[in-house]
Amino acid sequence: MHRRTALSVSAVALLAAAPLLAACGSDAHPGAAAVVGGQRIEVSSLQAQVQDVRAAQHASPQSAQLIKETGDLSRRKLHGMIFDRVVAKVAADNGVGASRGEIQKARADFARQSGGEQQMKALLLQQQGVAPDEIDDVARRAVLMNKIAAKLGATDTPEGQKKLTEAFGRASKALRIDVNPRFGTWDDEKIQLATYTAPWVRQISKAPGQSL
């Protein structure tokens, strides 16, 4: 990939890999995991993504290890679902989009760099908790991030990263992201789910891999 693509992929990976922690809380959003720009992200949609990943993990020779390392999978997937909507907002604000051909080319590039389609699927499942049928979404995100970086003139430098962070922070605030306390809260500055601790909730110890 060229310089700007590397920037976009690293930025996505950085945001996707951030710790996603939460305390148990009351269900203030019945049926919704989050509301982004007035649009609901249904708990059922989140659960469907989690189930897709779990199914792919169970089919892997490293299933036990993969499952152990993704005890926070629900929060991780919700983070991705919210972040994709922030990406879409920034892309729209800057007049850029991703065509089907561009998405397929990005996917082919990923596969080539990974050593083939199967290796790419295994790597994305292991490193990012991405199920095979979600790979096009990852490619779309990379295409949009690349175009956003180009439009903003964001280079692979601290200054360039700051431009991206500021643009995404503005879009995040504009979307008025409201997360069900069950899953945490959204941090507009860091553009990620953040720890949520309600005053009436006490922290409890969880076994490794157990989610709230």
Q: Notable features of this structure?
A:
single chain, 212 residues, mainly alpha, three-stranded antiparallel beta sheet, two-stranded antiparallel sheet, 5 strands, 56% helix, disordered N terminus, disordered C terminus
Please give the alpha-carbon distance between the first and last residues: 39 Å
Structural class: mainly alpha
Count helical runs: 8
Oligomer: single chain
Silhouette: globular
Mean pLDDT over the full residue set: 81
What is the radius of gyration computed over CA atoms, rounded to a whole number of angstroms? 17 Å
Question: Order of strands across the widest beta sheet?
Answer: 2-1-3
> Mind describing the biggest β-sheet?
3 strands, antiparallel
The number of domains: 1
Number of strands: 5
Helix content: 55-70%
Explain what you see.
It contains 8 helices and 5 strands; from the N terminus they run αββαααααααβββ. It has one domain (3-20, 47-178). A hairpin with a 2-residue loop joins β1 and β2. Mean pLDDT is 81; it is low at 1-27 and 196-212. α2 packs across α4 (73-93), α4 crosses α8 and α5 (100-114) crosses α6. The strands form 2 sheets. Strands 2-1-3 form a 3-stranded antiparallel beta sheet. A two-stranded antiparallel sheet has the order 4-5. With 212 residues, it is mainly alpha-helical. The longest helix has 21 residues, at 73-93. The N and C termini lie far apart (39 Å).
Topology:
Elements: H1 3-16, E1 32-36, E2 39-42, H2 43-58, H3 63-68, H4 73-93, H5 100-114, H6 117-128, H7 135-152, H8 158-174, E3 178-179, E4 185-187, E5 192-194
Helix pairs in contact: 1-7, 2-4, 4-7, 4-8, 5-6, 5-7
